[in-house]
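Bench notes, afternoon.
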Amino acid sequence: MPMEPRHYSQEEIDELIACPKAVSDPPRKEMKQDRGHFRNDMRLKSTDEKFEFRAFMRRSEDFPENFSIGLAFLPKDGTGELILLRCNGPHGDFNDAFDPANPHFDFHVHRASAAMMEEGLRAEKSATVNRDFASYEEALQYFVRSANITDATAYFGNIGQGRLLLVEEEPNP
């Protein structure tokens, strides 16, 4: 049975998100279909090997714009994982479990907050609309940069490029 989660300072949370990470258990080459969603996971370690993380990728089979890509910290003290970051696509109006001031009908990011933890809420409860991505592919790029995954190109191909070309584009003359 996991112990009560410990509270982290905002500085500790920000450091966990920003520290350089490398893939320790790679994602599958193809997402697995499970109960209406495509799923994939991978494990990460900080490059100084002090910290372990789990990254998760979910995408609705019926509504591909409804997705979640997240980073969970796995503390070694047995207190259970802490969701640090989630990049989401639109998934309707806000749910009562979330902050109604941050609607979920747009692309948005949930980022762990020490203030939320102090209030006894889920660390990543609050969300902000995000204009840095407008698709799963762009959100994955944003996530890899935000989570500082140093070897992501080995697993996600051209993710390190400014943007993915989903259709063949004509070069500008």
